[in-house]
Amino acid sequence: MKKLFPIFLLALLMAACQSNSTKFTVSGTIAGVDSGVVYLVKAQAGQPLVVDTVDIVQGKFTFEGSAQIPEMSYLRLNEREYFAQFFLENADINVESYKDSLRATKVTGSPTTDIFNTYVDEVTKLGEKIREYQQQYSQAAATGNQDEMDRVKVDIEAASDNMEVFAKNFVREHSNSIVGPFITLSQLGGRLEYEELKALVDGFAPELAASEYVVQLKTMVETQSKTAVGVEAPDFTMNDQEGNPFTLSSLRGKYVLVDFWASWCAPCRGENPNVVAAFNKFKDKGFDILGVSLDRDKDAWLKAINDDQLGWHHVSDLKYWQNEVAQLYGVSSIPHSILLDPDGKIVAKNLRGDALDEKLAELLN
């Protein structure tokens, strides 16, 4: 289950297409609101940071300043009501909003925001199609129609693949705009393998190199390079269920699946039967598993191990997404797995369903 971050909290952006102005104005109206305070907010270390405030006078407000590095920003009415999201850049930006329908706020005048909104509009359409398929799947499941469930599952997977392909193509087409790094970091970074992510990042225009998005992406690429297929997996030691230290390299001599999961992760629990079947089939042929849990509740972790009959090695530091091994391996979504050969080198990643069984049969039979 991928960690989700609100798009408006991802910040520090550099626009490739800017006006020649060295200053910005953000002028707005909020119909139905005569007075109050509007906050201009950006993200810092993943948290909202208020950078300026102005009073509403007869329903109108104006921010002025200079954006040396364009940033994804948003506006907040009083203390809680967020109503606008846009790339703050040196341009004349206009915000038109209504008290009774803040979600219908319209932002114009920001070229970078226009590019991003083109992406959002198409992704929204693709997402609606996926939701339609999910409803069909739920209806088929309610009636026990397995054939229909299998058919719709294929449609869901195909639609999800289409969304990812569209995102990657959009990034390539806008590699000279900060929108490219923005989408890559917020939507694709945790999904792509090392080679594909590196190719996207290497394709960004040189003038974007100083943006925080590209800096973060390069760090991500560097982390992924340590867990790319063909390299030796980083060794680690972490406590098992009894609180005893367990070291990955102690399993050398076997093919080992390092399986990142958690008791609260529904897709992980759904995949567990496949992993159990593979373990039972190949455990006597030189195959073993080390489960790394991103749990924070020890009782829930232990119960899931017992309920799902996960009869292999398990470790966790109970730090949730701050799990030290997950950070070492650059894990941003689960389930996530890495298959190692007897020398500790990575031979495959994220083998799910029949793919794990097929790969082990190839290697061990």
Overall description:
There is one protein chain. It contains nine helices and 15 strands. By secondary structure, it is an alpha+beta fold. The strands form four sheets. A five-stranded mixed β-sheet has the order 13-12-11-14-15, with helices on one face. Strands 4-1-7-8 form a four-stranded mixed β-sheet. Strands 3-2-5-6 form a four-stranded antiparallel β-sheet, with no helix packed on it. Helix 1 packs antiparallel against helix 2 (146-173) and helix 2 (146-173) packs antiparallel against helix 3. The longest helix has 33 residues, at 111-143.
Low confidence ranges: 1-19
Distance from first to last alpha carbon: 33 Å
Judging from the principal axes of the Cα atoms, what is the shape?
elongated
Beta-strand percent range? 25-35%
Our count of helices gives 9
The amount of helix comes to: 25-40%
Number of strands: 15
Please compute the radius of gyration using only Cα atoms.
Answer: 24 Å
List the strand order in the largest sheet.
13-12-11-14-15
| SSE class | alpha+beta
- Main pleated sheet: 5 strands, mixed
- The average pLDDT score comes to 89
SSE pattern, N- to C-terminal: EEEEEEEEHHHHHEEEHEHEHEEH
SSE order and pairing:
Blueprint: E1 24-31, E2 35-44, E3 47-57, E4 60-65, E5 71-77, E6 81-88, E7 92-98, E8 106-108, H1 111-143, H2 146-173, H3 179-188, H4 194-202, H5 212-225, E9 237-239, E10 245-247, E11 255-261, H6 266-282, E12 287-293, H7 298-307, E13 313-315, H8 324-328, E14 336-340, E15 346-349, H9 354-364
Parallel strand pairs: 1-7, 11-12, 12-13
Antiparallel strand pairs: 1-4, 2-3, 2-5, 5-6, 7-8, 9-10, 11-14, 14-15
